[in-house]
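pasting for ref. prot 1 ->
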Amino acid sequence: MSGDRLMARALRAAAAILLGHGGSQALRLASNLILTRLLFPEAFGIMAIVSVVTVGLAMFSDVGVGPSISQSKRGDEQVFLDTAWTIQVIRGLLLCGITGILALPVANFYGEPALAMYLPVAGLSLAIAGFNPTRIETAHRHLLLGRVTSLDLLSQVIGVTFMVVLAYLMQSVWALVLGGLVAPLAKLVLTSVFLPGKANRFKWERPAAQELMHFGKWIFLSTACYFMTSQGDKAILGRFLTLEILGIYNIGFFLANFPAGIGHVLVNRLLIPLYREKPPTESRENFDRIGRMRLVMTVSIMSAMLVMAYSGPWIVGLLYDPRYTMSGAIIVGVALGLLPHVIGMSYDQSALAAGDSRTFFIYTSCRAFLGIAFILIGVTTYGLVGALIGMGASHIVSHPVLIWLARRHGAHDMRHDLIASCVALVAGAGAVWLHWDALMLLPTEVVRGF
């Protein structure tokens, strides 16, 4: 892990990501355990909807500033970085305003008047994040993530601490809303002060803006699709289930998605630099080198997902009070539904590393459309159980499109996919057999519809 070689930097970056994201999720879990005892399940259902709106707006407007800096030949030029930062700031301010405009329609759609008050305040976090310095993306570009990870983790410690204190004092959803502003504010201050490099200034260089927009137009569409993949389940279930069940589902999803979340961060931060500097089409050695890293990631993440699938009900019984018992079965269903996604997780970044954001968009759009369609069909026919089945089925059906993308950039490994699929099928069947009774207690009817 020493030296300045690419793989050494990649290993150090992976260690930093694992430490940072693992620590972040551990903090979330600890705060979650405390907050579930101070608040009520409906509070987490309301915040799930708030998150759908704020995260959705952020994704629907993402112009790919981070990936652009990571893959561009001009990614280290200050004028390019300042132009990217200017775009980022404008976007954040616009998103904050749009959140306030959408507050009342969203509250009416979900039948929860309080959302009209919570959403405008929660939207301030989008404006704050827009001012984050591009020095964060420069560190990611060069796989120098130690200090970035430390500062990010510290900002989350500050945010979680404030949120827990507010929940104890207020015992209201407002504690979650106001507490959610502290972490992004702390991150902005800490990264602006302690990351090395020049401070950003408002600047608009036309060639830089054109390059960012040209690359980002497909990222914009891709992240809009990714929103439907990552948040579409909550957006749909929030309309069909009670806030209490939605809150319980949100907790189960958080726990089950823990390993996949780490994998997603690793893939996003590591593989664009690796694919860029060691293209698998360039030599067999490059293909094998990335293949070894892919194998390690797949084995690690899939093993962790199966641990969650086999032990979900026990984990919930140990950590939560009886109000959240249903979350155990949800962990099983979500973990199994995400296994097909884990198998192909490392492929899509090969397109972005090559500057092929169009092919990346084609894949993400197919995945998003299938995900929404399958979850919607599942929940309307068989309630929450149907939604969980639909989630897994959508990943399976969209995998051939991912293979097409990977083959275009020389990244596909058929042997890897076949072995991982067989392991997932056999081990997943065992988890279903073990927890069959718990899974059958999940709601199969809907409370309301569109």
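and prot 2 ->
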Amino acid sequence: MSGGRVVPDVLAAVDLGSNSFHMVVARHSHGQLVILDRLREMVRLAAGLGDSGRLDDAATDRALRCLERFGQRLRAMHADSVRVVGTSSLRRAKRKRWFLERARAALGHPIEIISGLEEARLIYSGVVHTSPMSPDKRLVIDIGGGSTEAVIGEGFSPLLLESLSVGCVGLSAVCFDDGKISEKRFERARTAVRLELEPIQEAYRKLGWLQVFGSSGTVRVIGDVLRRLNAESPRITLDNLRLLAERVIAAGHVDELDLPDVDAERAPVFPAGLAILLEIVENFAVDRVRVAEGAMREGLLYDLMGRFTDEDARVRSVRAMEMRYHVDGAQADRVEKTAVSLLEQVESDWGLEDPLAESVLRWAARLHESGLDIAHSKYHRHSAYLLQHADMPGFPREEQLLLSALVGGHRRQLSFESLEDLLPPWDRHAEFLTVLLRLAVLLHRGRSPQPLPEFNLKVKGRTVNMELPQGWMKEHPLTLEDLEQERQYWKDAGFRLNIV
């Protein structure tokens, strides 16, 4: 498993939100992160999603120009490790591969699309790492452009996470599309939020909390407005939110909002953001919302730092899956060790030096039998299904699909159809990783605790030459038979396996 590597000097996180794009760059110093620079641009990605689910040209152009500027700053600051994530709008966007490839070229780094629950986990991490430590349970609310996350946690551990399909940009398009504001429209917006909250409110109230924090732009701007309007009682409370709502409705139009700290960019989505926060505060009976210093981008930084220590959330998720599905740990150890040994022999020839290649191969080796807990027949397909659809904190969607594809291809007919949806270069890398995993699993099919002999693996293109000790194959006729069958599977998929 991974862990123990040296943390890079300069790390950066880029959050491609539905309303704004954010970038934060930090230096790692004595175990702490010192912020060096922050950038934020209003891109309004969610506003560019048409009924077809495709990003329009205007939103695409705004996004790519912003990412070019971010990329220039990252290069200038010599960021050693960068993580870029897309959230609600990119989750919903269709036919986005072209955009993601252009975005990667503009920024200089690949974009990961994360699930709503992963977004919630990272938000919580960003808030707690930048807030005073407290043993109390806390509720964290983040109102984004395309979704709203609600998390109850204790210390650094989230206990309950939800991502609601309502955000200030999407709700604005439904209830305030022409900029007009009325009591009826505002109530319609609140009703939409109430319907989203209804399925989760009982569980949240039952678990409870003692403190409430709001992160990101919407809550921060509302807090700034209340401080300017009411210096004597500037807190975000139900009464103050109601008074602010009355003032917003009285304006009649977003162009007429006369509120401090609400600029022309924020004004079109401000009524919807206020409606979301007001409904949450009233529905959950919140006394006061504190404005958090951190948000998802800080969570990304700390998560990124954890990948170089012993705190990688993905490793914890893999271990949890092993326990949940009663994986045979000894067999997983054997397959993992052999798979990594095979990779070390061919990684330079196949261009697999990226650390993720080794990590995902390790995780696939450890979880390839998770589907046995469901049924032995076609268990590799059950394993792949679990890994594709399970909530796995720390894993962006692309990595989870990559892991699922490797596991699903580790036995029987070899096909690469499931790799077509992976972004380059992983669509090609996954083919090589899959055949390495297949060899490792095959060599340990007998589940013997006896170690394998040393053997050599050499590759040229899609041809693999496997050199085994003389006489070993005669002593293991079942393995020889399996390898002969494997040669045919490989041939059908465009690979060639030679046993020397």
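Residues 326-499 form a domain with the Hypothetical protein af1432 fold (CATH 1.10.3210.10).
The chain has three domains: 10-114+299-305, 131-292, 326-499.
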